[in-house]
Write a structure and sequence with these properties.
Elements lengths: L18 E2 L3 H5 L2 H10 L2 E5 L5 E5 L2 H8 L4 E2 L7 H7 L6 H5 L10 H7 L7 H5 L2 H13 L7 E2 L13 E2 H6 L2 H10 L3 H4 L20 H24 L5 H10 L5 H14 L2 H15 L2 H9 L4 H11 L9 E3 L3 E3 L2 E3 L4 E4 L1 H5 L33 H18 L4 E2 L21 E3 L1 E2 L8
Parallel strand pairs: 1-2, 3-10, 5-13
Antiparallel strand pairs: 2-3, 4-7, 6-12, 7-10, 8-9, 11-12
Keywords: Heme, Iron, Metal-binding, Monooxygenase, Oxidoreductase
Family: Belongs to the cytochrome P450 family.
InterPro entries: Cyt_P450 (IPR001128), Cyt_P450_B (IPR002397), Cyt_P450_CS (IPR017972), Cyt_P450_sf (IPR036396)
Length: 441
Amino acid sequence: MSLPEPNEPSEASPLPDPVPLYGPGYKRDPYPLYARMREAGPIHRVLFPSGVTAWLVTGHEAAQKTLADPRLGKNHDRGNDRWRERASIMPEPQHSQLQVHLLHQDPPKHTTMRRLVTDAFAPRRVEGMRARFQEMADALVDAMPADAATGSAEPAELSEPAEPLDLVRCFAARFPFQVLAEVIGLPPHLAARFRREWGKVVAPVGPADPGRPAYEALLRELQGYIAEVVADRRGAPGDGLLSRLVAARDGGELTQEELDSMIFQLLVAGQEPVTNQITTAMVSLLRRPDALARLRAEPELMPAAVEELMRLDSAFELTTWRFLAEDADLHGTRVPAGDSVIVSLCAANRDPERFPDPDTLDLDRAQGSHLAFGHGIHFCPGAALARIELQVALGTLLARLPGLRLAVPEEELPWIPAVLGRGTVELPVAFDRPGCPLGRG
């Protein structure tokens, strides 16, 4: 059962209780609503399309304090019956077998599990792989269909309109997975069989939804694939992260469910957010041709630009659930035990009290504590890798695709319906094809 589309509250009207966080208008541009919520206070009751209600924290200071608050835990066992009725809807046995990864653990278990993955994503290690990532990005651009570009070398009346290039299909959905496979030690024969559709299982489908059978089928397929990965790495162990995780299971450091869950988290959460961040960053630049042109002309700005682009529009829009073990005050509001508490990273990153003129893309902004990767013990362990991926991806697209521009009106861009993330389903673009092949001629 789906909820009716929410009415857009006028700026003069009071915020509804709960505040609906869904609908095409919200997904396209949630920032005006977040600004109203920040101005009204640091915490609000919100409603998700599944019917789940939660407490949403919006301001930068309140967000930092919430993310580091030891009273709040991530384990789903803390959720109360009201939350569990609608939010904990991944069917069994998959829920028990795929939902005990790092994002849903508290210390000391979280500490033990996180220690197993940090070396693979250490800044020095992934920086040493930058040249390899650049090769991957260049190969994807080389493989782009040349007729997707709008020819600029010929007079307009002689050139035929070209089909737009979907940057998601041709690049953003492929590059992060290729990088991830290399970093975690997923062998090519298994990487070639991974289906991007499996990433959709992180967007739960309720039991009454007509799409539930297809959703459950994807879950079973993904679980079968994870079992193949485990068997392959056990039979032919290497020095990659996947092999080390299997060895940790065989050595008694992990349960089978924890192993499967960590592989699930790596394969799904390890790539889809980077795909989405490439799209949000490109949309931000395509909206601002002057900033795009400057970044193309001054590539040394790219590291700082990536930080500013993540601050401006983060692919991690909202955090996952947190729970209080007992009723407690949170930013002046009494929150019942077991109710879900969520932080809006996007709202925090545009807090004018922390970032002056926060809706502006400022390539010269003094970098500060944006929260695109979270904060506290659950700070994203792959942050260093994601930063390098974004620097390589954006730098390659700007350098290799001259005249890059949207091929459809911005209002026609389809934004992903995911509850916690931001990104576009497709990103149709055109570019100017020089008088030589698309490659490096």
